[in-house]
Amino acid sequence: MLRKQGMKRSMARFDIVGQLGSLRRYARSLTRDSADAEDLVHDALVRAYERRGTFRSGGNPRAWLLAILHNIFIDRMRSRRSEAARIEQAGRLAEQNMPASQDHSVRLSQVREAFLSLPEEQRAALHLVAIEGLSYAEAADVSGVPLGTLMSRIGRARAALREMEEGAPARGKNHLRIVGGES
Q: Where are the beta strands (DSSP E) in 25-181?
């Protein structure tokens, strides 16, 4: 109880308004931006209020507030560096995992075209199993056909796609061919 009364007396003498000039100057020096400096001062004052119990009676309130402001600035810089590193790493991973966009687009277009050219019952059966991830039994139930019928439709669809892939030179493994000159 006595400690709380002593703290209240020391906090009552704590001239926050008188410290604002020092806090703002130091914050501007650290951030080099007035809006960021104001945010930093605000956050420092909030933290000082929340942790007012850590202020030592007889201590220097200005030094205490400046230390809080400095620590918040350091925390922000660490978190920005950490975030920048995460973003950079995510960018590198995305670049590594992304195929050449033009080749990918062409290939995706060819597969889509081949898939859409299948007869509807084959396309529907293959879609349910290959794209939606249903089991053969679940796909047969959804389609309202016997399991054997569904399996034969999927088999025919896959065979037709294989034939389209192997039979058309533009869809083969070599997407480019030499025109003119020696082959």
A: none
